Amino acid sequence: MSDTASTLPELATYHTGYRSPVTERPHTRTILIGLTVLLLCLFLVLPLLSVFVEAFQQGVGKFLETFSIPDARSAIWLTLLVAAIAVPFNLVFGIAAAWAIAKHRFPGRAFLISLIDLPFSVSPVVAGLVYILLLGTNAPIGGFLYENFNIRIIFAVPGIVLATIFVTFPFIARELIPLMQDQGTGDEEAAISLGATGWQTFWYVTLPNVKWALLYGVLLCNARAMGEFGAVAVLSGKLRGETVTMPLQVELFYNEYASVAAFSLASLLAGLALVTLIIKSWLEWRFGDQLATGTRPH
Amino acid sequence: MKRVAFRQPSVIPGFRLTFSFTIFYLFIIVLIPIAGLYFRTFDLDWNSFVSIVTGPRFIAALRLSFVTSAVAALFNVVIGLLIAWVLVRYEFPGRKVMDAIIDLPFALPTAVAGIALTAIYAPNGIIGSLFDPFGIRIAYTSLGIWIALVFIGLPFVVRSVQPVLQDFNREIEEAAATLGARRIQTITRVMLPTLLPSILTGFAMAFARAVGEYGSVIFIAGNIPRQTEILPLLIVFRLEEFNYPAAAAIAAVMLTVSFLILLAINLIQVWSQRRFGLV
């Protein structure tokens, strides 16, 4: 990435020992690099390592024992289930929103994009709370559903799914919208003018153009969906074996001083984070030109 | 009768379907629930709202949340600039791995980060035990909260500064050098002003995230009322007491603040576009 940026001053230092005026002294560089590596190890690598160290501190046997605890197993299943529902919902939304916003011109598009980004700036706890206020059994909509159809949303699985959809809402849309805006509408117009239907255009022209960005968005969306804590904690009710996802089960184990169990389950989530980072870096390295430029972090 | 079109005419189909689905989904999932929160605060009369948001426990949590978040975000600006600079400008073994690991706080579930940080900074942890002999406690104090907020906010400044630094025109630095600027002057007087909008954006995003953060903080915080109790935790306590109006009132305050931060970020971007012609 910075290859082009660093060739010029490097050459200058090689030949004469004379320092290019647009770079720093060698020992300043060494100090800055050392400081960066130290900071990253201290703040990022150490916490990650400590999860695995704590998980295996009493041996592999104890580590594996965690995964035969029924509560841990049902937490893993629930997490997989919630992600399997929430991610496709946001996938369909992301594609629809990107198609409407990037392939057509209408007033207020920028405002619509800001609204889509809104869930990122809402505290997870507040995200959980808004659904309790709307869908709890003593709230207008939730009460109606409970009394007439006996459907519980809050303190049950549907609430967990809803909260997860809320916190992962923008991920896929914000990967697709800038990319599809950059790509313009030329390809689609050509396809239509050659007689393709709308669906054919989407399947054979648009989708192949954005497939890596789509995968990128799904990856980040999934990582957040499986790891969400605050929003889910507020409205799960924490019924063991029923409404407890993996991050919540980690908290329950931890608060019971079942440290090995907590960190063993946590190491599964940390492993997921690592896999996510590896695939993400691979996508950026291999298909960087087919991803949205200037992807903002979140 | 001539109709004024909402969207500009185009041959690409599917606008009505995708646009209405987008709006529908946005309203169901995001806008109606958020509006509902504000409506629930109206259940309170003015006096009880005021007594909630001026109560000593609320004020203490508010101050703790905002001060630690601001200090953590400021610290993130300093180390974020350093990290972005080193990753963009210098070549060293392991640079790509370091670059990839920056995003760890986004990928690692917050509860996992919370228990991991607590394990490290607790009095018997690897780092906590170094400070414990000197009487410095990190976990279960506001220092611990600060550590957690630095962790989750770390990527924001790095990732907002990195692309701008990458695209920075080196000829400008050379021009400054030929005009007699020392290296440090070039960096502080020439480069820093260009980086300022991205620094401010990164700061605002890290700050907003820190104020709302829950999962990574509650494990390390100790959660003592009026001392190490953050604002989101206060909402959770109110909910557990089934005091929904009070929870809604606190959440409404937090939500309004995050809208203001969002507005500030957008204004920074408009300003930087005018000032520098870049996003």
UniProtKB/TrEMBL annotation, chain A:
GO terms for molecular function: ABC-type sulfate transporter activity. SUPFAM superfamilies: MetI-like (SSF161098). It is a multi-pass membrane protein. Residues 76-278 form the ABC transmembrane type-1 domain. Keywords: Membrane, Sulfate transport, Transmembrane, Transmembrane helix, Transport. Its main location: membrane. Gene3D superfamilies: MetI-like (1.10.3720.10). InterPro entries: CysW_permease, MetI-like, MetI-like_sf, Sulph_transpt2. One of its GO terms (cellular component) is plasma membrane. The chain crosses the membrane at residues 31-56, 76-99, 111-133, 153-173, 213-237, 257-279. It is found in: Cell membrane. Part of the ABC transporter complex CysAWTP (TC 3.A.1.6.1) involved in sulfate/thiosulfate import. Probably responsible for the translocation of the substrate across the membrane. The complex is composed of two ATP-binding proteins (CysA), two transmembrane proteins (CysT and CysW) and a solute-binding protein (CysP). This is Sulfate ABC transporter permease subunit CysW.
From TrEMBL, chain B:
The chain crosses the membrane at residues 21-39, 59-88, 100-122, 134-158, 190-208, 246-268. Residues 62-265 form the ABC transmembrane type-1 domain. The keyword Membrane applies. It is found in: Cell membrane. It is a multi-pass membrane protein. Keywords: Membrane, Sulfate transport, Transmembrane, Transmembrane helix, Transport. GO terms for molecular function: ABC-type sulfate transporter activity. One of its GO terms (cellular component) is plasma membrane. Part of the ABC transporter complex (TC 3.A.1.6.1) involved in sulfate/thiosulfate import. Part of the ABC transporter complex CysAWTP (TC 3.A.1.6.1) involved in sulfate/thiosulfate import. Probably responsible for the translocation of the substrate across the membrane. This is Sulfate transport system permease protein CysT. The lineage of its organism: Bacteria, Pseudomonadati, Pseudomonadota, Alphaproteobacteria, Hyphomicrobiales.
